[in-house]
Amino acid sequence: MAFKSSGINPKRFHRSQLKFYIFLVPFSIFMALPIVFIVNHAFKPLDELYAFPPRFFVQQPTTENFRNLFQLAESSGIPLSRYLFNSIFVTVLVVILSIALSTLAGYALSKKQFKGKKLLLEMNNTALMFVPIAVMIPRFLTVSLIGIEDTFLAHILPLIAMPVGLFLIKQFIDQIPDSLIEAAVMDGANDLKIYWKIILPLIKPAIATAAILAFQLVWNDLETSTLYTTSENMRTLAFFMSTLAAQTNVVVGQGMAAVASLIMFVPNLVLFIILQSKVMNTMAHSGLK
Amino acid sequence: MKGNKKNPYLFLLPYLSLFTLFIIVPVLMAIFLSFTNFNTIEAPDFIGFLNYINLITQDEIFMQYVLPNTILFAVIVGPGGYILSFILAWILAQLTRIPRTIFALIFYSPSMTAGIAMAVVWRVIFSGNQLGYANNILMNMGVITEPIIWLQDTRYILLIMIVVALWSSMGVGFLAMMSGVLNIDESLYEAGAIDGVKNRFQELIYITIPSMRPQMLFGAVMAIVGTFSSGAVGVQLTGANPTPSYAGQLMVNHIEDYGFIRFEMGYAAALSVILLLIIYLFAYISKKLFSET
């Protein structure tokens, strides 16, 4: 008897899938442990944080750590809300600008013929592998050279051009049939109108995906705060939180650091859950040739 | 289209200018500075290949610790994380939709934490006294009798860094490969069965992987980027740069050490250039492996 073809994307449960669950369930528990831990740790009162033997799950949840964190920020002169505002302001602007610029460029790179197109694509694909940390020194010099140090621009400008975002968007636009655009041209639509009325609505999943990636990048970014700003009130939540994590040995610090981790992590998670089906839709076109 | 030949450039201009300013220029600048002696205060001073010569002949820490650490870390975390991502993506694709989504979410979430947000968790788990979770569990099991100071002990730092990096390695590449598996045309499998594919393993080698080469390559590139970016985790875990006895020192930390602690920017730039070359080499190899033939 010939081998019955595999069950990729099955519609319903079958006994043959059980063997996967036997492996996946323990493995996923292991993967999720640190995250479950941080949630529990954030709500532990002081005596449970330092209980011996250490306990994994919280017994009497309290919001003490949250209050301590706010108080600590308050006493250092800069309220937590300032870091939070900086983070949100910077993140929102970078996400919006990054999407706007990537979709514009993606449209031109996918649907237009012009000189240097191949070179540009090649350059962007090479830049996918660009690890920011490897060139942080010249980037730092660039920022000080154009004189945007210690301003919001120093947080925003360096992060807008995101090669992965452009790459995914361009791949997605490639799927839009040329005939659709030709028909619009016949009807007298100009490029801007085609971009706005045809391209953007059709690539919503890719936009959502690029937005998530940009969000994760900016929200977690430490580089801009550490290197491009000098005054404390220009720094972001990610920075503040990393300074907390560095003092975990101080009593009480652990609980607050856990709270800060949770505050950093939850927005990422929520956004991803909301947009996950769109992400998967985009990833189907993520192939690199 | 309609003679407005300048339009594509207008569409590209905003992206391209920022791309040039913050990606191209820094790379070129790194190459230029790597041939100079530059302390950020005085103007850079051209010294030819001296930085590179020093790197190979004088920098004992680099040769003795940083390079071997980086290679060990990259070889385990890169291919390890990549293969793990692929196997998980392949298995998940064979589940029904809802459990698949839930598992995918669990595997993907560590990569969202970007190392930084989670450093605190690892520092508590691997805390050096008997209050630490890892110590407590191992002591209860009778594996060890005295608490291990995990994050200061030169024998364990690199190992813990590798575990943490692997834990967070199921990122965008993992999602891409999962869609890749899901989007393979089913008739290919049927044709394969007729042509004599006998089991899942043969199916994987002869049908699944060849049909999703572009996603495999994207995943590989993302794995390379992830591996080299997560290198900073050692400094976050131990809370010091350099890490204790350089046991967890990777190239990114070495760059930071020279650039921002000792302010020898020229030398740090030479290190950056070497790192970029290493990354490029890895990407080139993956490209050769997965490009359509």
UniProtKB/TrEMBL annotation, chain A:
CDD domains (UniProt xref): TM_PBP2
Domain (ABC transmembrane type-1) ranges: 84-275
Predominant location: membrane
Transmembrane residue ranges: 20-43, 83-107, 127-146, 152-173, 194-219, 251-275
Protein name in the entry: ABC-type glycerol-3-phosphate transport system, permease component
Matching Pfam families: BPD_transp_1
Any one GO biological process: transmembrane transport
Membrane topology summary: Multi-pass membrane protein
Native organism: Amphibacillus marinus
Keywords assigned by UniProt, alphabetized: Cell membrane, Membrane, Transmembrane, Transmembrane helix, Transport
Family under the similarity heading: Belongs to the binding-protein-dependent transport system permease family.
Keyword DNA-binding: no
Xref: InterPro entries: MetI-like, MetI-like_sf
Keyword flag Nucleus: no
Subcellular location: Cell membrane
Entry GO CC: plasma membrane
Species classification: Bacteria, Bacillati, Bacillota, Bacilli, Bacillales
From TrEMBL, chain B:
SUPFAM superfamilies: MetI-like
Keywords: Cell membrane, Membrane, Sugar transport, Transmembrane, Transmembrane helix, Transport
The family this protein is said to belong to: Belongs to the binding-protein-dependent transport system permease family.
Name of the protein described by the UniProt record: Multiple sugar transport system permease protein
PANTHER family per UniProt: BLR7065 PROTEIN, SPERMIDINE_PUTRESCINE TRANSPORT SYSTEM PERMEASE PROTEIN
Main location: membrane
GO cellular component, as recorded: plasma membrane
Membrane topology: Multi-pass membrane protein
